[in-house]
Amino acid sequence: MMPLMALREAALPAFCLLSGGLGAIAGSFLGVVAERVPQAVRGEEGAENLLFPGSHCAACDHSLAWWENIPLLSWCLLRGRCRCCKTAIPARLLLMEGLSALFFATTAAFAPSPLALGGLWLLWCGLLPLAVIDLRWLLLPDCLTQPLLWAGLLYHAALPQPALTDALYGAVAGYLSLWLVYWTFRLLTGREGLGYGDFKLLAALGAWCSWQALPALVMVASVSGIGAFILFRPGDKRHGHIPFGPCLALAGIIIFIAETFHFTF
Ligand SMILES: [Zn+2]
Question: Which positions, given as ranges, span the membrane (predicted)?
Answer without folding.
Answer: 12-34, 167-185, 205-232, 244-263
